[in-house]
Amino acid sequence: MKNYFQLKENDTTFKREILAGAVSFVTIVYIVAVNASILSDAGIPLEAGMLATVISAVAGCLLMGFIGKTPIILVPGMGVNALFTYTVCQSMGLTWQEGLAAVTVSGLLFCLIAFTKLTEILSAAIPASIKEAITAGVGIFLTFIGLQKGQLVVSSKTTFVQLGNLSSPHVIVTLLTLLLTVILFARKVKGEFLISIVFGTVLAACFGLIHPNETAGAASPLASYLSVFGALSFGAMVKAGFWVAVFSLTMVIVFENIGLVHGHTEMIKRPDKFKKSLQANALSALFSGIAGTSPTVSTVETAAGIASGGRTGLTAITTGLLFLSSLLFLPFIKLVPDSAIAPVLIIIGGLMIQSIQKINLEDFTESFPAFLIIALIPLTYSIVDGMAFGFIAYPILKIAMKRRQEITAPLYIIAVLFLANFIFHSF
Q1: Residue 33, pLDDT score
Q2: Would you give the end-to-end CA distance of the chain in angstroms?
Q3: What's 327's DSSP letter?
Q4: Mean pLDDT for the chain?
Q5: Read out DSSP for 39-50?
Q6: CA angle 425-426-427, nearest 5°?
Q7: Confidence band (pLDDT; 50, 70, 90) for 274?
């Protein structure tokens, strides 16, 4: 094993890799509850969503460990799970079975890109401002979803949204949990999200917001999951909406992962591992649809494992195997209320909004398309529609300013496809 993972060459030890994998696990295990909660809004049973999250995380980490040989952790991603649930399934009208089929096809396209030179071509074709704007827009969208789950923001007949009832037990638990989560995160406590979710769940129980008897008669997690595993429906492939969903999912997972994998391989000073790591990432995303969840992505929490000394795939394998232990706690994870999930979504959204710093705000041809994406993703409640406005506006502004040379051929194609989708759905 030492020779396979080249521990000596990577200046690490077996013990250090195992400990780094354990640290990564503690920082990311919260995803089991959070991702299942979001998938349930698409119609996937909560128990099945938890199992799908665990199985895809185990598979993703093992693929990364054995193929990429890097400490990168792969789990269903925040942001792309919101795209799957709230845009693909809710806004675009696909069933979750059709949505999973779209995830699988997007995974196939990701593999096509990762295993060819298309990676470099596409990465260079999309402006940095557009990539960063998508991340920031999705961040605000996640925060909005968190505010809704915590009932801090509720619907209004006159103003669409308004502040929730601050005296409500649900809101009080959300605010107290958010306060603890912010403090833990600011102090860089390892496993801060896991600690806050446990605290929020206990607090909700004290306020009488959890009723274990309501879930006692539910189907067993395994029986529920068997109805989801491989439950792909390709019946919508004849519809334009299906391919818009595939296109959007592919765009997000490709560019998000290219950026994250590049960043992580640079952190361990092994840029030569980028290609294999991205390929492992693509294979994992392909399996996600079959497993019954939104695509897996390289996580920012990977940095915690790297900071703890993780340098090889042994770290990722350790994290993946530890995810199996979370199966023992599924009965308890089922009890986690929205008030305990909401603070995590709010803070993750706050982290993603930092991408705005990388946008050239002094250049209107760069900043305005980015602004449209950031504003319209949450305001239209659709990641696809928000992206579309930015991709269409970008070439228009560049042409208007006689800067046509800054537009690549793939960007023209993407803009036309988004415009055609708008026209198709308008008539």
Answers
A1: 93
A2: 61
A3: G
A4: 91
A5: HHTTT--HHHHH
A6: 95
A7: very high
- Amino acid (1-letter code) at residue 38: I
Number of domains making up the chain: 1
Residue 123 lies inside a defined structural domain of this protein? yes
Quote the pTM value.
0.83
Listed range (51-60, 104-113, 279-288, 345-354) with the worst mean pLDDT:
345-354
Q: Write the burial class of residue 211 (CB in 10 Å: 0-12 exposed, 13-18 middle, 19+ buried).
A: exposed
The strand pair at 296-298 and 153-156 is best described as unpaired
User: Has residue 39 been placed in a domain?
Assistant: yes
Q: What is the largest CA-CA distance in the chain?
A: 66
Question: Domain range for residue 194?
Answer: 10-357
Burial of 188 (0-12, 13-18, 19+ CB in 10 A): exposed
Which H or E run contains 76? strand 74-76
Burial class, 352, CB count within 10 angstroms (exposed 0-12 / middle 13-18 / buried 19+): buried
CA-to-CA separations, 381 to 37, 150, 297, 404, in angstroms, rounded: 18, 17, 22, 32
Identify whether 196 is part of a domain: yes
Asked if residue 339 is part of any domain, the answer here is: yes
